[in-house]
Amino acid sequence: MRSYTKVSNEILHSRRMNNDAKVLLLVVQSLPERERYDALGAYAETLGLTPRQYRNARKDLIANGYLHEWKWQNDRGRWVTDQLTSNVALTCDEAIALRDGGPAEPPSEREPMVGSSQTRKARTYKPVEEDCGKTLPHPPSKAEPEREPAPDPEEAPEVDDDDPELIQAERLLLSLRHSHRDLLLGVREARGLAEQAAEWLRRGIPAADLRRALTAYLPSNGVRSAVGFLRHRLTEKMPPPPPPPPPADAAGTAPEAPTRPAPLIACEGPGDLHVFRPAAGETHCGPCRREAALEDHERRHPRPWSAPDHGPVAWRDHFDKYARGLTT
Questions:
Q1: Residues whose CB is less than 8 angstroms from the CB of residue 300 and which lie 6 or more positions away in sequence, other chains included
Q2: Range from 57-66, 301-310, 311-320 carrying the lowest mean pLDDT
Q3: Torsion, Cα of 265, 269, 272, 275 (10° steps)
Q4: Which residue has the higher pLDDT, 76 or 231?
């Protein structure tokens, strides 16, 4: 009898996973013992899945608990991904127990829908170095041999309540996870970056522009370290400081306040009594000055005298006068 692989009805009839995710999971579970330690992407490439199809299948497997991943940095500063797949949905605690050498079966007592409990399998893969030709903006000085538990948010550094820009910057950094899940920050991480973000606000950058500068044009392969990525953008894209205020006078006094407008006075020109507001000690209003200037111009440059016009002349009368020599 040829070898075969049992498929759970839970996997076969699941509507939360696409067909690529189901086929990829079944192919991995059908591998012999000596071929189970390659990267999951290598099997997807063997099946002919495109990068986009592989990303969607991997996303469905992770969301339904059939694939778990852990990322860490090795001694050379490169990011390494550990992958674990199973033919039953596992919680994070169950997957960590299997990764650390725990029992072969999950601690749950539930019975599988197809097959016996001896058919439960979990596949682990050798670490894959993710070196895409890019270096981290802030690589660690040395590798951490052990992972320490996440710090308690209550032990995070205190924020100065008297600095509104610092408080607004911390809240903005913590809310970036709503824009993109790769930008998830802890309380301590957000407070470590709040001072740089607050400097943007102090330099006149609106909060909406700061959010766009941090979330626009993210890497196509995802953000590996949210803290390092945001620190790099806050540092490299820091806007210039606002221009300094204008220097004070030599005597150190503030500039004089503008003077009040001149009061209204009566115009000395002809006509009815009317008032105006002089600009430089004038005694006549603007219309009176223009009228006086026009009269002075006509007096100095009189118009040439011309005979009165008696209207148009009929053509017959014109020819008669021409024949008599009275006109030309």
A1: none
A2: 301-310
A3: -20
A4: 231
Report the alpha-carbon distance of residue 198 to residue 167 in Å, rounded.
Answer: 8
What single-letter amino acid sits at 44? A
| pLDDT higher than threshold 80 for residue 108 | no
User: For 308-326, what is the mean pLDDT?
Assistant: 73
3-state secondary structure the chain: CCCCCCCCHHHHCCCCCCHHHHHHHHHHHCCCHHHCCCCHHHHHHHHCCCHHHHHHHHHHHHHCCCEEEEEEECCCCCEEEEEEEECCCCCHHHHHHHHCCCCCCCCCCCCCCCCCHHHCCEEECCCEEECCCCCCCCCCCCCCCCCCCCCCHHHCCCCCCCCHHHHHHHHHHHHHHHCCHHHCCCHHHHHHHHHHHHHHHHCCCCHHHHHHHHHCCCCCCCCCCHHHHHHHHHHHCCCCCCCCCCCCCCCCCCCCCCCCCCCCEECCCCCCCCEECCCCCCCCCHHHHHHHHHHHHHHHCCCCCCCCCCCCCCHHHHHHHHHCCCCC
Phi then psi for 66, rounded to 5 degrees?
-90, -10
- pLDDT at residue number 158: 58
- Alpha-carbon Rg for the chain, nearest whole angstrom, is 44
Is it the case that residue 126 has pLDDT exceeding 80?
no
What's the average model confidence in pLDDT over 147-166? 61
Kindly tell me if the per-residue pLDDT of 115 is higher than 70. no
Q: Mean pLDDT over residues 247-276, rounded? A: 75
Residues 6+ apart with CB under 8 A from 18: 56, 57, 60
Whether residue 327 has pLDDT greater than 80: no
- Return the number of other C-beta atoms located less than 10 Å from residue 8's C-beta: 19
